[in-house]
Automatic annotation (TrEMBL):
<protein>
    <submittedName>
        <fullName>Rhodanese-like domain-containing protein</fullName>
    </submittedName>
</protein>
<feature type="domain" description="Rhodanese">
    <location>
        <begin position="18"/>
        <end position="103"/>
    </location>
</feature>
<dbReference type="InterPro" id="IPR001763">
    <property type="entry name" value="Rhodanese-like_dom"/>
</dbReference>
<dbReference type="InterPro" id="IPR036873">
    <property type="entry name" value="Rhodanese-like_dom_sf"/>
</dbReference>
<dbReference type="Pfam" id="PF00581">
    <property type="entry name" value="Rhodanese"/>
</dbReference>
<dbReference type="InterPro" id="IPR050229">
    <property type="entry name" value="GlpE_sulfurtransferase"/>
</dbReference>
Amino acid sequence: MSTIPEMNGETLEQKLKNGENITVIDVREDEEVEEGMIPGAKHVRLGDLQDRYTELDKEDNHVVVCRSGRRSMKASEFLKENGFANVTNLEGGMLGWPGDVSKK
C-alpha cells in the first residue's frame, strides 16, 4: 500500500485558483501533453524523471499527474524515496481534471 496522499481534481483546481504554491508535475508522454495540460504544469516524462528530478525543489509542494493516476503514483513514490517531503498524486489523473487545459 502506498503512503502517497491523493488529491482529486476539484481540490487541486481550487487550490491553484486560490494561489496556493503548488508545483504540478505532468509525467505523461509528449503526445499526451500535446492534447493539453494543467496550466502552469511542468512536463517531465516519467521515463526522464530519474535524470531530471534534481531540477525540482524538494521543499515545494508537488502534485504529480498522468492520464489516469498510475504512472504519477510511481513518480510520486520515486520523488518521496529521493527526499521530497510534500508529494501528492492527482487521483484519476487528467481523466479526473475538471479545469481548463493549456496547449504546448
